[in-house]
Automatic annotation (TrEMBL):
Similarity-based family: Belongs to the cysteine dioxygenase family.
Alphabetized UniProt keyword annotations: Dioxygenase, Oxidoreductase
Domain of life: Bacteria
Organism, scientific name: Nocardioides imazamoxiresistens
Name of the featured protein: Cysteine dioxygenase family protein
Annotated InterPro entries: CDO_1, RmlC-like_jellyroll, RmlC_Cupin_sf
One of the Pfam families matching this protein, by short name: CDO_I
Recorded GO MF terms: dioxygenase activity
Length: 159
């Protein structure tokens, strides 16, 4: 595994408006009061949703991870209100790590594959924005130096 020294915003101008919207929404007072950040299970709360934008508030208990996935064609961005997360991306057959701390943000274009983890001993709280609205997620598993698709989740469909 390696830690690249690239900027926190990936794929340039396409994600900058989303990142700005996310930062404005994350600045709203009282977001940390909407969920129990110390709950042992991950919690999510949809803050707003339209065909063009969807925003979620997510808790991250210590040790929690998303597993390898993408967000379909949706661009994404997230920022940390509390704690820190480590985002792993797949680069040249090897995971690359990005640590994101309180007040920091990451943004990415559609099709971006990652695994986001709370590797600390403390809970984390983040706000995530997707544009357009998140309708599918593809799941992956590392195998032989590559990521293999294990399934596709569709919004509103229980698997």
């Amino acid at each position: 595994m390696h830690t690249p020294s690239a900027p926190h915003v990936r794929d340039g101008l396409a994600v900058l408006p989303l990142l700005q919207t996310l930062r404005e929404l994350a600045a709203e007072p009282g977001l940390d009061q909407l969920v129990d950040v110390h709950h042992p299970e991950r919690q999510s709360l949809e803050l707003t949703s339209s065909p063009d934008l969807q925003v979620w508030l997510l808790t991250w208990p210590p040790g929690h991870r998303t597993g390898w996935h993408d967000h379909g064609a949706s661009r994404g961005a997230y920022t940390l209100l509390l704690g820190s997360l480590t985002e792993y991306t797949w680069e040249l057959g090897d995971p690359a790590a990005w640590r994101v701390g309180r007040g920091e943000a990451r943004a990415y274009a559609g099709g971006h594959v990652h695994d986001v983890r709370n590797e600390s001993d403390a809970p984390a709280l983040s706000v995530h924005a997707y544009a357009p609205k998140l309708v599918s997620m593809t799941r992956y598993v590392p195998s032989g130096g590559r990521l293999q698709v294990t399934g596709v989740e569709q919004a509103g469909v229980q698997l």
